[in-house]
Each structure stands twice: as structure tokens, then as C-alpha cells.
Design goal:
By secondary structure, this protein is mainly alpha-helical. It has 13 helices and no strands. Helix content is 77%, strand content 0%. The chain is globular and about 60 Å long.
């Protein structure tokens, strides 16, 4: 009961924080900087996966049971980091240009209605498929994969440490993807965001396929016996590499989603990011529910199908958006005649 209550509070706070972060990123970026800022933000954010898991790895190393002193130390460190992050939010630069553009502040009810109207638009319904996949992938790399590795007795006594190491490499993949797309964000947007999202889809499918080969089907549900092997002999190095692929593919998707929402829905970014987090968390909740009942292979199949569907929907929305921004040949001809006939 206590764990469920803690989870509710954490998810509620996370939803508020993520919506505010998305809005802050949007209002502090323009079309030339939003990709760079999204990549830098994501690299800094996911560095916690690397640093946090590395800290826990050394604290828990060689311990079968976690003693009270170690738990208190980890809890105090996490509390201090959370408190420092909250205090730093108060010194973020203000955004007076937002209120100076004649925008009217909305009441909570008006904001909820605006989000509902935005949600039922065709583009947002298509993007919701991508958001839904983002939640499934989040659950795969943050919970299902680590649980499967920890329950695979074929790895021997090192399986718990291997779970932490895999999480560290998930963080490395996230940081690398965020840094690369942050540095080259202004260049990638010239060719659209579709290539990066498609690359992320390919990488995620590779990760799911390797996990299918490397881990037993029953590994998310219970501790497997040593004789319960995967399709191939479970390999520690492949396990770590799969973690890196999961993190890199997630960075490909999330950086482009943030950049796309921040640029396309700049005037209504709060509603757009709220819909994104709602749909993502809904998918994550569903995965946490059925992951206790369904074997690994079926979970990977669902994730793979949703990956392809989400990538297709994102590409369709970006294509529709680019078409709206293009000038039709008739409009170009009329514009040319107007400029030709205009007095000098």
C-alpha cells in the first residue's frame, strides 16, 4: 500500500514537472534552436541514469542484503539532489516575452478544454500513437529489461550486478544520442526529423531482436532455472550492448518528439506536452500491468509492432506539416505576378 501511494505521488509530480519543462523549453527556443536545445536538455536529463546507477552499483557492490546504513545514505543523496534541483528552478530566467505577446492566461478548466480540443485533431491523434509507443519503450528499458536480466540465472551470481551495468549503458546510449542530436540538431532539421526517428526505430528493433535471442521467455515473470536457456546462450556482453541500443533508440525518438512539439505547437505547448505525457504514462501503466502476466517474447512483439506504427505516424504528421508550409505552384505564380506588377 505504501509503495503504491509513493508511486502515485511520484507520477503526479512527474507529470507536472514534465509539462512545465516542455513549456519552458518551447518558449525559450525558436525554429533554429529547438533541436539543439532539445538534444542538450535530453542529454543532461538522462545523465542521471548513468550517474545514479553508477553510484548505486558501487554502494550495493558485494552485498546480498541492503543494510540500513546503505539505504539511508542512498536516500539522503537522492533527497539532496532533488532539493537542489527544485531550488535551481527558482533561478531560471523569466520569460516576459510570453506575457508580452498579448496572450491571455487560461484558468485550469479552460486549459483542460484546450487540451481536449487539441487532442482530437488529426495530427495529435496520429502523434498519440507515437506517444503510446514512447511509453511502451520506456517501460521496456526501465523495468522489463532489468527485471529479465536479474531473473536470468544463466548469468550466475553476477546477474544483479549485470542489471546495474546494463542500466548504466542504457544511460550512456541516452546521453550519446542526446549529445549528438544536440550538437547537430540544426543540421538534421534541414532534412526533417523523420530520418532520426526511423533510425531510432531500426535500433529499437535490433535491441528487441537481440533480447529475444539472449533472454528466456519466462525471465520477466520469475527467476528462471539455470537449465532454462534462451534461444542462444545468454551472453553478458550482448546484454550490456542491448542496454546501450535501448538507450540510444530512446534518445532518437525523445529528442525529436520534444523538438517537434516545441516548434509545431509553440503557441499551445503546455497542452501538447500534457497530452504527450498523459498518453506515454497511460501506455507505461498498461505495460506494468500486463508485464506480470505475459512472457518476454510477447512483450517484445508488442513493442516492435508499436515501434513501427509510431514511426509511421510521426513521419505522416511531419509530412503533413511540411506540406502545409510549402507554397503551391499556383500561389507561387500569383505571388510572382503580384511582384511583377507592383510599382517600383
Amino acid at each position: 500500500m505504501v509503495n503504491n501511494t509513493n508511486t502515485v505521488f511520484m507520477k503526479t509530480g512527474g507529470a507536472l514537472l514534465w509539462t512545465a519543462q516542455g513549456n519552458f523549453l518551447s518558449v525559450n527556443s525558436d525554429n533554429d534552436t529547438v533541436d539543439r536545445n532539445s538534444g542538450i536538455f535530453w542529454a543532461i536529463f538522462v545523465s542521471s541514469n548513468f550517474i545514479g546507477n553508477l553510484f548505486v552499483y558501487f554502494q550495493f557492490q558485494g552485498k546480498e542484503d541492503i543494510d540500513g546504513e546503505t539505504r539511508n545514505l542512498v536516500g539522503i543523496v537522492l533527497l539532496c539532489v532533488a532539493s537542489a534541483g527544485t531550488l535551481l528552478m527558482f533561478i531560471l530566467r523569466p520569460t516576459p516575452w510570453v506575457d508580452g505577446e498579448g496572450q491571455v492566461r487560461k484558468s485550469p478548466l479552460e486549459a483542460l478544454k484546450a487540451s481536449a480540443r487539441l487532442f482530437i485533431t488529426q495530427d495529435m491523434l496520429l502523434l498519440s500513437v507515437t506517444f503510446f509507443y514512447a511509453g511502451i519503450h520506456l517501460s521496456i528499458y526501465s523495468a522489463v529489461y532489468g527485471t529479465s536480466v536479474g531473473f536470468t540465472n544463466a548469468f550466475g551470481k553476477d546477474r544483479k550486478a549485470l542489471t546495474t551495468i546494463s542500466s548504466i549503458f542504457i544511460g550512456l546510449g541516452e546521453v550519446l544520442g542526446g549529445a549528438v542530436f544536440g550538437i547537430f540538431g540544426s543540421k538534421t532539421v534541414k532534412h526533417g526529423r523523420k530520418p532520426i526517428v526511423i533510425l531510432g526505430c531500426i535500433i529499437s528493433l535490433m535491441a528487441y531482436f537481440f533480447a529475444f535471442l539472449n533472454l528466456p521467455h519466462e525471465s520477466p515473470l520469475r527467476e528462471t532455472e539455470p537449465f532454462e536457456t534462451a534461444i542462444l546462450v545468454s551472453d553478458k556482453y550482448l546484454t550490456v550492448f542491448i542496454g546501450f541500443l535501448l538507450g540510444l533508440s530512446d534518445a532518437c525518438l525523445k529528442t525529436q518528439l520534444y523538438a517537434f512539439l516545441g516548434s509545431t505547437y509553440k503557441d499551445d505547448s503546455s497542452s501538447a506536452f500534457a497530452i504527450y505525457k498523459f498518453t506515454e504514462c497511460l501506455a507505461a501503466s498498461l505495460v506494468f500491468w500486463y508485464s506480470r502476466l505475459v512472457g518476454l517474447y510477447w512483450q517484445l512483439l508488442v513493442a516492435a509492432v508499436c515501434s513501427v506504427a509510431g514511426t509511421f505516424c510521426f513521419a505522416a504528421v511531419e509530412w503533413r506539416q511540411s506540406k502545409r508550409l510549402e507554397i503551391s505552384p499556383t500561389e507561387m505564380e500569383e505571388t510572382g505576378k503580384f511582384l511583377k506588377d507592383a510599382p517600383e
